[in-house]
Design a protein that fits this description.
With 465 residues, the chain is an alpha+beta fold. It has three domains: 202 residues, Beta Barrel (Porin); 42 residues, no CATH class; 117 residues, OmpA-like domain (60s Ribosomal Protein L30, Chain: A, 2-Layer Sandwich). The strands form two sheets. It has an eight-stranded antiparallel barrel with strand order 1-2-3-4-5-6-7-8. A three-stranded mixed beta sheet has the order 10-9-11. Helix 2 packs antiparallel against helix 3. It is rod-shaped and about 165 Å long. It starts with a helix and ends with a strand.
Length: 465
């Protein structure tokens, strides 16, 4: 038994060396277990003794309730392939002592097999199935104390199938239970069950994500990927690994970090405000149809040029006079640009008003309107303004050179204000009337004579352009 066990261990170590030399980048598992050989359930006749060792089929059995033969060791070495599949070799040695009719005798047992295992789960409890083929040997010679090994005449080719499970106890340690049924191809072989209970240990270079790239070389060891990308995934298949792909689920170009560009304008769809219409990068991928520097996505008037301050739309011009409302002092009345959009009185009307205005004079150092002649003049001016409801006039106040310049400036403005108050009191819209004080400037007569100074204390009218 000792000799055969040594042979078994040497054979396992030889296979380990060969497999490691071929697959140094793959994970490994080593299992050491106790094995149990059970012939009783496979014996055709529970009362039949063993046949002659030189003869045909060996019909052995174990006494009911006492037919399990425990032995040691059972050694397994496997390598994970992919998709839950592993390939490996296993060997075991045992001594059968519980055989009916053979009291006191021992029958050495040895096996060396290769197998393919499949486990659908990577969780704590991992069930599996396995299929295999190899050699098994029962020493049935008359000299029961002699050792027999796999190259003896007792060895038979055997195929088998089994089930088992691994219970995860740590990152690399597992508790394992397996049961296999072994069927020999030679007629002198013995059908039997072999059960194993032991511990498994994972070692070697790991491949945590199972993508065929070892963790040592895998740039994405926790994500299954492709070998050509160093083990990193490329979900959208655009040739850019997910870690460097700004759009990992949508195929795109390297120039746009893996993102698509539907309208081919050089702006990735995720950043393109107009992903279906080509536009310049400076406008976030949107066109500017009216070329007003406000792109269409933000321009409420994409086909009408307008200032940026008004979001690309032209300023409104309610009266259509060409002066936008924001600059039009009379937004509801047409007027020329020179008059800030306000209507103006005809020159002939202003001339007539000024003829009347020359009759509006003031006492020295006074802004009071006095005399029936003055009031009659103001009534005529009022009538002209009522008859011409459009247009704004400027009322200019003047003074003679009596008094200081500052005093005369103030007094002239007060005279213009007095005329405006009168006209407003007569119903003229104050918005049509503007005033200004011009003091001693623009005299129409010589200030050196009393008569000249009297005529210079006056008001004049102008059309407000």
């Amino acid at each position: 038994m000792k000799k055969s066990s040594c042979y078994l261990i040497i054979g396992i170590l030889f296979c380990v060396h060969q497999l490691q030399a071929q697959t140094s980048e793959n994970p490994w598992r080593l299992r050491l277990a106790v094995n149990v050989i059970d012939i009783y359930p496979t014996a055709p006749d529970a009362n039949a003794p063993f046949a002659d060792t030189q003869g045909g089929f060996m019909e052995g059995f174990f006494q009911v309730g006492d037919h399990w033969n425990f032995g040691f060791p059972a050694i397994e070495l496997s390598r994970y392939l992919a998709g839950g599949f592993s390939i490996g070799v296993m060997g075991s040695a045992n001594t059968l002592k519980k055989v009916a009719g053979t009291s006191g005798l021992a029958f050495p047992y040895n096996a060396l097999e290769g197998f393919l295992k499949y486990s659908p789960s990577r969780r704590t409890i991992r069930p599996y199935v396995l299929l295999g083929y190899g050699l098994s040997s029962f020493d049935t010679s008359s000299n029961k104390t002699a050792d027999a090994f796999l190259l003896s005449k007792n060895a038979s080719k055997t195929y088998f199938g089994g089930v088992g499970f691994d219970l995860k106890m740590g990152s690399k340690l597992f508790f394992s239970i397996a049961s296999t049924y072994k069927n020999p191809t030679e007629n002198y072989g013995i059908k039997h069950f072999q059960h194993q209970i032991g511990l498994s240990y994972d070692f070697g270079v790991q491949d945590r994500d199972g993508d065929g790239v070892s963790d040592k070389k895998d740039q994405c060891p926790d994500q299954a990927g492709l070998k050509e990308f160093g083990g990193c995934p490329d979900q959208d298949g655009d040739g850019i690994i997910d870690g460097k792909d700004s759009c990992p689920e949508l195929p795109g170009s390297a120039a746009l970090q893996g993102c698509p560009d539907t309208d081919n304008d050089g702006v990735a769809d995720q950043d393109d405000l107009c992903p279906d219409v080509a536009g310049p990068i400076v406008f976030d991928g949107c066109p500017d149809t009216d070329d007003d520097t406000v792109h269409d996505a933000l321009d409420p008037c994409p086909e009408e040029k307008g200032p940026v301050e008004n979001k690309g739309c032209p300023w409104p011009d309610s009266d259509g006079d060409g002066v936008p409302d924001m600059s039009d002092l009379c937004p509801d009345e047409k007027g020329p640009i020179e008059a800030n959009g306000c209507p103006v009185l005809a020159d002939a009307i202003i001339q007539t008003i000024n003829e009347f205005g020359s009759m509006i004079n003031f006492m020295a150092e006074s802004d009071q309107i006095l005399g029936s002649k003055t009031y009659n003049t103001l009534e005529k001016i009022t009538a002209l303004l009522v008859a011409n409801p459009s247009g704004t006039i400027l009322i200019e106040g003047y003074a003679s050179e009596d008094g200081s310049t500052a005093y005369n400036q103030k007094l002239s403005l007060q005279r213009a204000a007095a005329v405006k108050r009168y006209l407003v009191a007569k119903g003229i819209d104050p918005k049509r009337l503007e005033i200004v004080g011009l003091g001693e400037t623009g005299p129409i007569e010589d200030n050196k004579t009393p008569g000249g100074r009297a005529k210079n204390r006056r008001v004049q009218f102008k059309s407000k352009h």
